[in-house]
Amino acid sequence: MAKKLEVKDLIISFRTNNGTVKAVRDISFDLEAGETLAIVGESGSGKSVTARAIMGILAGNAIPEGGEILYDGQDLMKISEDDFHKIRGNRISMIFQDPLSSLNPIVKIGTQLTEAMILNGKANQREASRTYKAKTKLLAVAMKNAGVQNVDANMAVFNKAIHFGSKLEGEYNYSRERIESMVKNIDESLIDVINGAPKAVAKQIRLIISDSKNAYNPYLVPRDDANMGAMIDQLKTALPEYINTGDHKQLDDILKKIKNLLEDVLKNERPYFFAIGYCQTNDCDAVFTGDVASYNAAVKAILHRNFLDSFLNDIAKGLEYSNNDAFSKKDDVVALLNAELDRLNAESRIDPDACRQHSKPIIKAVIDSIDMLAIRKDSAAFTYKSTINAAIDTYRRACRVEKMNHPGKKDREFKDRMDIDLYQGNIRLAHTRLRDAYSDQLVAAQKIDYLELAQEMVAYLDDQASRMVFKVTKRKAQIRAIELMEEVGISDARRRFKQYPFEFSGGMRQRIVIAIALAANPDILICDEPTTALDVTIQAQILELINRLKEERHLSIIFITHDLGVVANMADKIAVMYAGKIVEYGSVDDVFYAPAHPYTWALLASMPDLDTKDKLDAIPGTPPNMIYPPKGDAFAERNKYAMAIDFEEQPPMFKINDTHYAATWLLHPDAPKVEPPKLVTDRIERMKKLGGEE
């Protein structure tokens, strides 16, 4: 599966009056597409700090000391707030523990749901326009450099077809929005009729009639559609009769007929506007007779036969030229990196200023080697400059701290002592990662299908053009918000749309927060203990809802909790955190059926279980003071299985199998054989038996 998010060697501290708190200490994990990663641990273990670092909402006293959070070719630890604004809420959303604190108590729920949609809609339109213009300009240059003839003329044909198709799509979107509004208002009218609310019915029907004037579109409801016009006229006649007599049978029948007609219309295949734009700007002979699917097939065939097949070959040549140019520069970058690594290995003491100077030509070469025509960003290249600068800044910051702690020493004394641990390791790692990434890309370059890449490019540009005309109006946002409320299980959504947060229960407020988080169709959803403030029954409903939304929307989820039992049926992978470090990492089966770290055993032993009468084991003691992190294993003081080495040295992450790792000296070949507590092994046996029966 493709990686959605990569966290590498993340270190975050907080400056306090009592000293620097080491909150997150060198953690790494990946989140793959469609996967749920559960991060589990006690309060203060660093779970929420990790989530807030991913969202870019760390407190002002936070000190990001090192590491990377890679998403879509960017290191989220290094990007500007303006760049983060495009990601936060749009691509990565978060649900917080207390839903009431996430909502404005004096603003109606509907307003809170729609305002972000409208603002983001405008921003997305502007971004799509900039992206389309930049990519087409670069593409034209690449095709010319590749020796393609008539580039300007063909690009003009392409742009004209795209833009004319986008204009038609904008008109289609406007009419479709009105039809969707009519369907919602009909539903509301039918409810108001049953409830005997003639004034409300009259208001809704006036909206239906008003929307019907703008619902006509050749690909939805043609203006000469006799059925639609006749039914609207009947509706105008039936409304006064209903108000005067109270007899709603005729009104019901008409409303249901209109709704059936409109719902059938909304099921029609979406027109292929790029091909339609080409045909209508080039006098093609395809004629729309009312069947959208047949018309799509006809115009698509004409587009490919008359223009696109040939143009795709030209695009493929341009992409190949651009890629080859980038690959030749990447080859040079690999040579520069190897030379710099050799220089670093030969130096007994490295001066940071000299290394920054040596890195400048490499950074320039890396930037020059980026293929700006690539649709997917190259994470290794885009983050290289910030990684190098961060390594140097980390070293300098550490030197300042050492100087404060040892005021009598000269600069050279502590720099010599710290080079290897804090500087050379980080800088070598940055060079090595990029070299290896580029080397892999150079090998993969031999298998690239440029015609397939050209098809992806056309689809990408067509998608950007669609985004340019996807206008989120107040009406569209309201319809979308009501749909989201219904999707997350809020009944009578149209009425509750106008209510305040205090009029909702805790579980309903959490559903509203989930709806807000989903409004922008994010890739990644972070759930920070979303069920802690809810009772057990409501917890189960929210967990079931999150699971369903994950499947329906193909979300990647990070679920943070202190309770292993909460994630037993929803996680794919589990990271167990303690004192700012991941102490065990594996699949849900690895962690539940073969736990290896004593802290994981302790969490499992303290988890409530209906099938046992044994007394639960509480974890003795308290987490350590992270202003003064323990020298060895942070869990040693609370671990009845601790050995002498646990108090002296931190354990490495031992590999148990390809998916399972744990940081405990008990996994060392020379360690004594220790079995998990009987309470845990009994529970594992019951889970295995239950799984077999199911």
What can you see in these coordinates?
With 694 residues, the protein is α/β, with parallel strands linked by helices. It folds into four domains: 3-106 and 471-567, P-loop containing nucleotide triphosphate hydrolases (Rossmann fold), CATH 3.40.50.300; 120-306, Four Helix Bundle (Hemerythrin (Met), subunit A); 317-450, Four Helix Bundle (Hemerythrin (Met), subunit A), CATH 1.20.120; 591-693, no CATH class. It is 56% helix and 11% strand. It contains 21 helices and twelve strands. It has helices spanning 47-55, 81-87, 109-145, 151-194, 198-212, 226-245, 249-266, 273-281, 292-346, 352-369, 379-382, 384-405, 411-444, 450-468, 474-487, 493-496, 506-518, 536-553, 588-593, 598-605, 678-693; strands at 3-16, 19-32, 36-40, 62-71, 74-75, 92-95, 524-528, 556-561, 573-578, 581-587, 654-655, 661-662. Strands 6-7-8-3-9-10-12-11 form an eight-stranded mixed sheet, sandwiched between helices. A hairpin with a 2-residue loop joins strand 1 (3-16) and strand 2. Helix 9 packs antiparallel against helix 10. The longest helix has 55 residues, at 292-346. It is flat and about 90 Å long. It starts with a strand and ends with a helix.
